[in-house]
């Protein structure tokens, strides 16, 4: 909020001046009526017109400055949120569904915006107007004022009580909306699987269940809000009727002039207006605060560590390129790696094989620095990964996930992910090297070809080759590759094998391998079983001495 101080101070100053002009009007009205009834000269008409116009102009300016400040505040919040959400440790993304992050960025930030734009605007005006009206009413007639006060106090107590309930209910509503967004997001991300499993109805039912819960929570909120309005009206109208009746008697008995009673009634309106304004502002602020809490939870989550003491500058070729020393790791309490040690010489190709769930992908994730080991040391490119600046390290490491997912967007955007300064010529060269020149000609879009959501317009093999093109562009020292388990036809397989040879030539490569053709050409093969290294050797050595490997090899791997 500190950086928005100038805007808020300006709003405060304009509000004070506008309020002075607002509360001056009944006094001028009183003078005008009393002067008219005594037949004296009456300049008050013009004063009244001028002051009313002046107040209008200032209220407009107040609204604009406040809205602008609100946008700046929420803009800043959104920027911080985006920066944090995209920098969380990898474990956070598996722990929380994507929709949760998205709903905080969308629905919650919009809700917070109302705190500043309407909530604060109304509250600032209301408090000022209320204070001024109270002072002038007490001066005009303390007896009539005490009647008014009763109604206002009753209303205030009611609002405070209901406001707290509203905030709690709003939190529930926002959480239900987030669950619905997550469920819809999950369903949309797996639409092919769902359609093919004839599970559309089931998913529609699931998402609508959350939508119904959000609706029910919204209705609970409407119920509370439905009480607010009548309670307030009753208090205010009661006070108004009482002022009219008692005020009339006091004019008849000569304690008050007609002008004074009129002025008092105008102040009563000025008092009522801020009270209803404050009521809606309070509601808005309670809803906004509930959202702000949800946003703060994310902002307080620790980001993935940045700025380790060592920058990886490369290309250096420390020998060996990768060393794991007695590495233990578990995602939760369950251990996944139980003392893995291995050494990867510079420029070599190491294949990691083993049964499903043995921890092969986890080894790659540790080498990417996605998680730190619970015990033991991961040294890569000459550094203990706990000490390095991860961004600088990852610039020298390419990681190709299973299925080689592409980013939505253009072909060029997908490639420039790893090198923003690459020229079009560079992009064409690497696409040519992996046999993807055909894509450039497709739909005459060239490098601007839209790859669809997650690269959905590409085939699996094309996505794989696009990943290779990215590796060539990045020119990393270390290549980590999680080979897809899905079987591809033999023509594609040999094409991919050639592309892999091309890309991995001269680079240290660690491959989680599922194909015999990949494994036999490896310089060393690490057999992983149940989080432990069972054996390390070449294909020929392992076939001779490792029963588990022999079984895999006989079944053409695909483990
Ligand atoms: N993000 C995660 N959170 C919790 N558990 C996980 C996570 N990722 C993997 N696991 C678990 O850790 C174990 C090892 O998983 P990993 O993906 O490393 O195995 P893998 O050998 O690569 O298996 P596959 O060949 O089937 O891909 C598995 O039991 C898996 O269920």
Automatic annotation (TrEMBL):
Spell out the SUPFAM superfamilies in the cross-references.
ABC transporter transmembrane region, P-loop containing nucleoside triphosphate hydrolases
Annotated membrane topology: Multi-pass membrane protein
Q: Which residues cross the membrane?
A: 7-24, 44-61, 120-138, 144-164, 227-249, 261-282
Report the locations given in the UniProt record.
Cell membrane
- PROSITE patterns in the record: ABC_TM1F, ABC_TRANSPORTER_1, ABC_TRANSPORTER_2
| Keyword terms, alphabetized | ATP-binding, Membrane, Nucleotide-binding, Transmembrane, Transmembrane helix
Q: Which domain of life is it from?
A: Bacteria
Please report the stretch or stretches of sequence annotated as the ABC transporter domain: 322-555
Q: Please list the residue ranges annotated as the ABC transmembrane type-1 domain.
A: 9-287
User: Can the keyword Nucleotide-binding be found in this entry's annotation?
Assistant: yes
Q: Which InterPro entries match?
A: AAA+_ATPase, ABC1_TM_dom, ABC1_TM_sf, ABC_transporter-like_ATP-bd, ABC_transporter-like_CS, P-loop_NTPase, Type_1_exporter
Q: Which PANTHER family match?
A: ATP-BINDING CASSETTE SUB-FAMILY B MEMBER 10, MITOCHONDRIAL, ATP-DEPENDENT PERMEASE MDL1, MITOCHONDRIAL
Q: What is this protein called?
A: ABC transporter
